[in-house]
User: What shape does this take?
Amino acid sequence: MNKLLVLPGDGIGPEVMSQVMRVIEWLSRKGRGEFSVKEGLVGGCAYDAHGAPLSDETMAEAMAADAVLLGAVGGPKWDNLPFASKPERGLLRLRKEMDLFANLRPAVVFDALVEASSLKPELVKGLDVLIVRELTGGVYFGEPRGIETLPDGTRRGVNTQVYTTPEIERVARVAFDLALKRDRRVCSVDKANVMESGLLWREEVTRLHAAEYKDKGIELSHMYADNAAMQLVRKPKQFDVIVTDNLFGDLLSDCAAMLTGSLGMLPSASLGPLDDKGRRRALYEPVHGSAPDIAGKDSANPLATLLSFAMMLRFSFNMDDNASLIEQAVQNVLKGGLRTADIMQKGMAKVSTTVMGDVVLRELDKLA
Ligand SMILES: NC(=O)c1ccc[n+]([C@@H]2O[C@H](COP(=O)([O-])OP(=O)(O)OC[C@H]3O[C@@H](n4cnc5c(N)ncnc54)[C@H](O)[C@@H]3O)[C@@H](O)[C@H]2O)c1
Assistant: This one.
């Protein structure tokens, strides 16, 4: 039985998650997968209930689960809490204690939404890029760090970009393994021309590729981060899998997200190390936040969370068929002209969160 922890969170989190729960029930009803689902609190709602954005019990549930599906956290109600109690700290605790070092951000353009991109349709039609970002190392965590006042009274801010061989190797391995299931092309992005940590990155990725993945037909290329940013908006379809460090990944994944045109459509996954049962810790969540401006109005787009669940089926539960089925259902619903408000286009029919859930289920019934 696949053990799943669901953390709907705050704002639109519970609304979009309830549509995913309907799909989980549908899969069970159709005999396509058995899930043992537990629900917990994270973010502001957890603070209201327990005085902390993630309780120790929920953290333990997350460690015991095969995978965690999260909605979103945060909202104005909790904006003025002390730093340690802020809703985001719940999410950061999950990421830290689960040691989620690889962040996967697919940028997929659905045919029906090709006009929503900021780029010309011919540049993005059929786009399917996966960005693998190192998430727990690099300049956001490196020591020394801080702001100091120098003897002459001026101030100096310091952050350290630092990577070790194991850190580079484990994230590169995730990227190569994912490429095996895709078009078998990995582009490693760094600044090896001006940064020693980038040079090490390039050397280690090259070494791992030669030792373990070249023979499996994986093609490896390298690109400087500035060029990669340019190429992503110039000719995005040249990429299959991009693997890069924390800082460059932060920028490039947001840049790639815009190629698809809508926050309400973007899923993500964060993967950790293999545990002693050979299971990889994993957290799946939409890229968007809790959208307090539309919370409670039944108008949020549930598809990013549903597509995050599809990623879970593919990467944590080895259920590629179910994942593809859900993705196809989403394609068909969009092709049929139904849109939530965030992706509304002229001539299409605007539907609520619940109705979007209804039509996805109807489409699943047709496809299965
Ligand atoms: N991972 C997370 O949980 C996460 C990520 C980002 C922001 N946040 C938190 O969310 C709160 C709001 O942040 P924000 O406004 O900067 O970002 P946001 O992603 O919540 O919203 C940005 C805009 O996009 C819209 N939007 C987002 N998701 C949507 C969806 N599924 N369907 C339709 N429209 C959608 C919102 O209505 C809003 O206009 C803050 O408290 C922030 O800290 C949480």
